[in-house]
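Q: I'm building a small set of examples for a reading group on sequence design. Run inverse folding on the following structure and report the sequence directly after it, with nothing in between.
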């Protein structure tokens, strides 16, 4: 059974506009995420836009599709992965020294049974896969922080 919420956050010494420019450029997602190899939006980035994605774990590759569920420029980007029913989001909050960036994977309505079955059969089980996802979220946020603070 999947955890309903996985979440990581980081403080970034850069203004929200700078962080937003990195997070909202979906072509950059493979630069941040250790699992994502491609995220391509069809049409302008807005609520309702659809994406095609390619993920990798070791020698295993799998495609997914998603749809942008929330798009609030400078504040929040969220998308639902159609294959497993999870919603991934990035939320930005101004702080005294820059930006707090929070990455969340929401599965309040559960993950589709077929997705859980595949994770259990091929990826070592849901608990270990979710630990790996959380580690990846922290790695993604660290990479975004490094890019925002050095460029």
């Amino acid at each position: 059974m999947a955890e309903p919420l996985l979440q990581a956050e980081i403080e970034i010494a850069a203004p929200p506009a700078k962080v937003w420019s990195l997070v909202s450029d979906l072509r950059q997602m493979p630069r941040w995420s250790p699992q994502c190899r491609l995220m391509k939006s069809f049409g302008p980035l807005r609520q309702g836009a659809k994406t095609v994605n390619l993920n990798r774990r070791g020698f295993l590759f799998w495609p997914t599709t998603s749809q942008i569920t929330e798009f609030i420029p400078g504040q929040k980007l969220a998308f639902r992965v159609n294959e497993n029913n999870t919603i991934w989001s990035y939320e930005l909050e101004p702080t005294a020294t820059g930006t707090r960036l929070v990455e969340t994977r929401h599965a309040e309505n559960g993950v589709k049974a077929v997705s859980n079955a595949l994770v259990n059969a091929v990826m070592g089980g849901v608990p270990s896969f979710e630990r790996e996802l959380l580690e990846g979220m922290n790695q993604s946020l660290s990479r975004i922080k490094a890019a925002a603070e050095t460029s």
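The chain has a mean pLDDT of 95.
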